[in-house]
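Ticket #4471: structure output looks truncated?

Reporter: J.K.
Steps to reproduce: submitted the chain below (191 residues) through the standard prediction queue, then opened the result file.
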Amino acid sequence: MTTVGTRTTDLVPRRWSMAMRITTGAAMVAIVVVLVVDATHINLLGWVAAVLTLLASGLSWMILAPIGCARYREYRAVIAAPVVVIIGVGLVWFGVPEKIGWWMSASAMTEAAHSCRESEGEWFGVIRTSGVRFDDGGCQFTIDDMAILGGLAYFPPGTQPPDHGGRGYQPVYTPYDGNWYRFAVTMHDHP
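Returned output as attached by the reporter:
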């Protein structure tokens, strides 16, 4: 005999338990991919795969969660996936993966910036660049997924990046960390 309010794990079907574990596992893998892509700037395809996996997990969770709560009283199993997603999104929102990636890569990128040899598709620490070149008196590392549109630039101590006045097809620099600047190329002329 069962009393009201007790958890009846022996009555929870194995199919539901496995489906919820797979849903939570898929959400966890997707969040890990998002964190790695955010830290390393690998490519946009990783983001797309992670978002699609999160959407599929969310759909599965929306079907399984009401059943688990109402019929089986499996609250802990139901809450696991949302907690994983909320923590992961919070870390990305506050820039934690990018800060960790930069912390792990700053010395390698600074060392490479001193010689500033042109290259394509190299790793510096954990950050993947699509190109390195000398421009505007500094060393530009293109790291964004759209190759020539942005990245990070190093300017030697005592120098600053030029101000192109917002002219089209020229980089716009914003301070990032010490002698490092984030840059993005404006793809239109200002009127």
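Triage note (M.O.): checked the attachment and the full token line is present. The beta strands are 122-124, 127-129, 131-135, 138-142, 150-154, 171-177, 180-185.
Status: closed, working as intended.
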